[in-house]
Amino acid sequence: MSNTRFWLVVPAAGIGQRMKADRPKQYLRLQNRYLLDITLTRLLAAAEFDGRIVSLHGEDHWWPHTDSASDDRIRTIQGGAQRSDSVMAALRALDSRAASDDWVLVHDVARPCLHPDDLKRLRKELQGHPVGGLLACPMADTLKRMGPGQTVVETVERDGIWRALTPQMFRYGVLRDALAKAEHAGLVITDEASAVEHCGFRPRLVEGRADNIKVTVPEDLALAEFILGRIDSGNGITGDP
Ligand code: C5P
């Protein structure tokens, strides 16, 4: 990874509807800080980046009140209607600086509990990889497909099913082309890997910790606070997934 540069993209332009809060979830308070500040502080402490871009909603008025706003290593840009638009906007902002072979690490702002060991493992396992990959977890629960009237129509075979997490890490050129193609084809893309898969590539799965949760519903906040407390005290759960 010596000559290739390493860029950070954090999509933070969501409105967090499922949280049913008075503000986007990235601005909810956790450990007396904004969730967004926790995620960004942990990322920036875990690795050195050549550039850091955060995509914000066009009507975001919270950002100036965060600690991150005064970190001049971070550049903000306006995101888009979908998560993939927000990532694409960040990639466009890197256009004049990033080379095709550079790495881009994309991490949801809503995942504050990333363990630094997971980021290290992702980078290590992708070293020299031509495309990239993602942190993911083998599925533990039995999966059901819902039919009419909220009834079960099928139990889905869970063997070989993994949950996609972030960070996801791809070569800049691969990811940019993949997202542009997906946009052109009108595909709904919920993570970087799926866009890359649509181009015929096979991103690598790197097993990550199950406690790298995405804060989505109100009860996730207390859980995230608990997980962060455990990670930061070096208590219990080890660095291994
Ligand atoms: O809503 P969800 O939790 O799936 O969003 C995942 C991530 O994508 C969050 O970090 C959110 O802020 C971001 N996002 C975005 N632009 C959008 C929608 C979501 O940057 N239009």
As laid out across the biggest beta sheet, the strand order is 5-4-1-6-10-7-11
Strand share of the residues?
15-25%
- Terminal Cα span: 24 Å
**CATH topology-level fold name:** Spore Coat Polysaccharide Biosynthesis Protein SpsA, Chain A
Tell me the radius of gyration. 18 Å
Structural category:
alpha/beta
User: Mean of the pLDDT scores?
Assistant: 95
Write the layout of secondary structure elements.
Blueprint: E1 6-12, E2 29-30, E3 33-34, H1 35-46, E4 51-56, E5 74-78, H2 83-93, E6 103-106, H3 116-126, E7 132-138, E8 143-147, E9 151-156, E10 162-171, H4 172-185, H5 192-198, E11 204-207, H6 219-232
Parallel strand pairs: 1-4, 1-6, 4-5, 7-11
Antiparallel strand pairs: 2-3, 6-10, 7-10, 8-9
Kindly describe this structure.
- With 241 residues, the chain is of the alpha/beta class.
- The chain has one domain: Alpha-Beta Complex (Spore Coat Polysaccharide Biosynthesis Protein SpsA, Chain A), CATH 3.90.550.10.
- It has 6 helices and 11 strands.
- A 7-stranded mixed beta sheet has the order 5-4-1-6-10-7-11, with helices on both faces. A two-stranded antiparallel sheet has the order 2-3. Strands 8-9 form a two-stranded antiparallel ribbon.
- A hairpin with a 2-residue loop joins strand 2 (29-30) and strand 3.
- Bound molecules: cytidine-5'-monophosphate.
